[in-house]
């Protein structure tokens, strides 16, 4: 948001470390998207979460297959020619 970098939001003291002025920041209005836009954003994020979960499952399956193949090679059940 734009007001996060506003001079009224941060107080600069003699120590050189800025800190948040909570009293002033709580009195500022917060601009939120309309509810239909929030719903659309939530749907996109949910779809992304589902895609990430599917990719994690695929990666875990590939790791399991690789581990099994390595075990077969190490035990001599399978030989490379």
Number of strands: 2
Distance between the termini: 62 Å
Average pLDDT score: 82
N-to-C SSE string, H for helix and E for strand:
EEHH
Q: Based on Cα principal axes, name the global outline.
A: elongated
Task: Bin the helical content.
Answer: 55-70%
Please work out how many helical segments DSSP would assign: 2
Overall structural class, as computed from helix and strand content, comes to mainly alpha
Which strands sit side by side, in order, in the main sheet?
1-2
Task: Give Rg in angstroms.
Answer: 27 Å
Q: Biggest β-sheet, characterized? A: 2 strands, antiparallel
Give the domain tally.
Answer: 2
Q: Beta fraction of the residues?
A: under 5%
Spans of at least 5 consecutive residues with low confidence: none
Model description:
This protein is mostly helical and 81 residues long. The chain has two domains: 1-30, no CATH class; 33-72. The protein has helices at residues 22-26, 35-75; strands spanning 10-11, 19-20. A two-stranded antiparallel sheet has the order 1-2. The longest helix is centred in the last third of the chain and has 41 residues, at 35-75. It is elongated and about 75 Å long. It starts with 9 loop residues before the first strand and ends in a 6-residue tail after the last helix. This is Type I restriction enzyme, S subunit. One of its GO terms (molecular function) is DNA binding.
Outline the secondary-structure elements.
Layout: E1 10-11, E2 19-20, H1 22-26, H2 35-75
Antiparallel strand pairs: 1-2
Key traits:
Type I restriction enzyme, S subunit, two-stranded antiparallel ribbon, restriction system, 57% helix, 81 residues, mainly alpha
